[in-house]
Write a structure and sequence with these properties.
alpha/beta, TIM Barrel, 2 domains, six-stranded parallel beta sheet, 10 helices, DiNase_FeMo-co_biosyn_sf, Di-Nase_FeMo-co_biosynth, rSAM_sf, Nitrogen fixation protein NifB
Length: 334
């Protein structure tokens, strides 16, 4: 199936996502074997994983050696009380446990799994589904907890009732996504999930459009960390230059210029200098960025957005291109 999928769109395939059904880390031997098979046949593909996090600490080094560079960890609560409202059962291993016991194990595994993955250089985005009446008012605690553990960003996903589910949660008067996003600490980036779930759902910037920065008179541009000018594919700390996108007079979105990024070695001052360099930019798109640069840039009015993929559609959505805008993007000069 993978060979067929890549064969149909070889030039567009940059990432393989292992998401289930079930939790991939529940069968770690099979997971690692699958990753190695993919890596052997397609060495340039990026490998991603979606998981609840049970076993993440134990297998973090193995995942990194196998080539996994991005993990989405599903965290719907950081207290047993909240998890018991959401899950009918949790089975972290082969042993049968009460829901209360299993919730404690899950919280502990996630608490140790996030820093273990980060220690191995793997990007971690926490994905939280907003269950009305269960965890919407708990998102601030989730965000604070996972930020302290080193997670790169938080993705908020609206609740969707299962087609044949026995329980359907009624939406409240308050928009869960709107309420939750304003409760997240400013230094924690909110992104959309990159990986599809078991139902095929994968978020994108349009799904989280209410959270998108918008160009303004004072900040009409968007900066991008890219090695070749086609994809967002660089860690911010490794970017030697940044591509600057904006609108032409006729409204077309295009590459306006490139700017050399400040050199490493000056600590926090490097990111202050970058903030000054991007004083006319409303956002910066990059694959990953450390907590310090994210905080400094955010404090200076530049939203750091963690993503990967083709530059053109991502930039177009920030400039409102999802409403019919056009693009005149191109490769940057070398």
């Amino acid at each position: 199936m993978l060979v067929d999928a890549i064969g149909k769109r070889p030039e567009e395939t940059v990432r393989v996502a292992i998401t289930g059904p079930g939790d991939p880390l529940a069968v770690p031997d099979t997971l690692l074997q699958t990753i190695n098979l993919v890596r052997d046949r397609y060495p340039r593909l990026r490998i991603s994983l979606k998981t609840l996090g049970c076993g993440a600490r134990r297998f973090a080094a193995d995942l990194a050696r196998a080539g996994v560079d991005y993990v989405e960890m599903v965290v719907n609560g950081v207290t047993g009380e909240i998890l018991e409202k959401i899950y009918a059962w949790i089975r972290p291993g082969l042993k049968t446990m009460t829901l209360q016991e299993a919730a404690y194990v899950l919280i502990t595994e996630q608490k140790h799994g996030i820093p273990a993955l980060k220690y191995q250089g793997i990007g971690v985005v926490v994905v939280t589904t907003l269950y009305p009446g269960c965890n919407v008012h708990h998102v601030n605690r989730i965000a604070a907890a996972v930020q302290e553990l080193g997670a790169d960003a938080l993705a908020l996903v609206p609740y969707r009732a299962e087609p044949d589910g026995e329980v359907v949660l009624e939406p409240g008067e308050v928009d869960p996504l709107e309420h939750a996003r304003w409760s997240v600490p400013p230094a924690m980036p909110i992104v959309s999930p990159l990986l599809a779930d078991d139902d095929g759902y994968a978020g994108n910037y349009r799904q989280g459009a209410a959270r998108l920065p918008r160009p303004s008179l004072l900040r009409p541009l968007v900066a991008v960390a890219s090695s070749g000018g086609l994809d967002v594919d660089l860690h911010l700390g490794r970017a030697e230059r940044l591509l600057i996108y904006g609108c032409r007079e006729d409204g077309l979105v295009c590459l306006r210029e490139t700017r050399p990024a400040p050199q490493p070695g000056s600590g926090r001052q490097r990111w202050q200098d970058l903030s000054d360099l991007l004083s006319d930019c409303c956002a910066l798109l990059t694959v990953q960025a450390g907590e310090t640069p994210r905080r400094v840039l955010q404090e200076n009015g530049v939203r750091v957005m963690l993503t990967d993929g083709q530059i053109e559609p991502l930039v177009e959505q920030i400039f409102g291109g999802d409403k019919g805008g056009r693009s005149a993007g191109g490769k940057p000069p070398r």
